[in-house]
Amino acid sequence: MGTKKRVKESTIIPKVNADNSDEYDSFAARNSTQKNSDFTVFMHLLKASIGSGILFLPYAFSRVGYVSALMCSIVIGLISCHTAILTVQCSQILCKRMQKPSMDLAEIASTSFKFGPEKIRKYAVSLNVVTNVLVCFIQYETVIIYSLYVASSTQQLLDYFIDFKLDIRIYIIIFLPIYCLLALIPNFKYLVPCSILGALLLGLGFSITLYYLFIDFPSPGRLNMYTDMLSIPIYGSIFLFAVHNMTMIMPLENSMENPQNMPRILAASMILNMFIYMSFGFFGYNKYPNACDTIIKSLPMNQITAQIVKIVVTLSIICSYGLHYYVPVNILWPMISRKITRRHYLYEIIFRIGGVMATTIIAAAIPQMTPLLGLLTAICMTTMMLLLPATIELMTKWYDKDSLPSFYYRWIKDILIIIIWLIMLVFGVSENLRDIIKAYRTTNDVNSTNSC
Fold first, then answer.
1. Membrane-crossing residues (predicted)?
2. What is the tens place of the pLDDT at every residue in 393-422?
3. Is 139 within 8 Å of 150 (Cβ atoms)?
4. Which domains are assigned to the chain?
């Protein structure tokens, strides 16, 4: 009887904190000595989102037509912007309720469940683990796509220069030792120079690519407005891969000088990013209507500048590999190491190398880069960008005493977001799987994976 009473009392502790939350200032409680200005955070958000994902957009435009692509971009972009802002706003509410200066994404998700219906509060700890796994899965997805991009780009270059044809899986394995070395780098500060070099190389390649898009500018009148409506989930997955920034929002918000301004900064940066993505996708499609999976591979091979772009972008992807791989290791290894009593260093090496081996095996098993990107994004990134924020808001504000219109607005809005998540999940998985199976039935597709 005493045990049941203690359990019952433990479920209402968050409510007690919620009642006293107005007296706690979570922003003032943050003791960071190096806080970022609004402009610095804005530039971080802008720079982080304009990455390798943008290179897939011209191909995505070619799959659905430019009108369908632009409309889909606006819808997904605005929803993603809204859910990102929701996450920040809920985190600030929960920090006040729990009297904590800051939280990471997993803490926000698990804490929100503590303020939901009593029957689901017991799942709060499990949700913390699930959220961390989602974050790790996104980073593992990125390194899988990176290994495929490097292999397919190298394949294209060697096919042209020395007429040396090999299965793409061989190239994936050739780069495995480099990835293993990058994965063994133990400290984030040692990855920073490599990451900066990667960003500079990508910026150089991106700039030269823009030159190619606008030189001898063709008339857009010849383009298809609509093509395959069934490919819209594929486009949505690719666009979401390009626009996603959920994993870095909270670290930036926690380091801000004025965290209360984060929603406005997020809105400004994501709308600007959305405009950049739409413009790049449209102009890339206009220049190369039959674009390869990435726009870089569509550039003419017989020109030196195009060859330079292909090389520097490939090098930039290799340089960025270690940074993306560091994130899941930094999250998962502390959880695992607590259960290991000896030889921590040896087991950590095995864990790091094992992750590289696993992602490489997946890339070699399914070397169709764009369908695999769409498949993994439909499973994981849609959950992170759509389902999780909507659920966090519903749980955080479950017992809020709102007006009836606000209550209905919140529920209808979040249920619609969850329905969109479900549609993107089901149709994104089915359509991308269909593309993968179709490619496997054609030997040429398996060997070349649309290297053009």
1. 39-61, 67-88, 123-148, 168-185, 190-214, 234-253, 265-284, 304-324, 345-366, 372-390, 411-430
2. 999 998 887 778 888 899 999 999 999 999
3. no
4. 34-448 (1.20.1740.10)
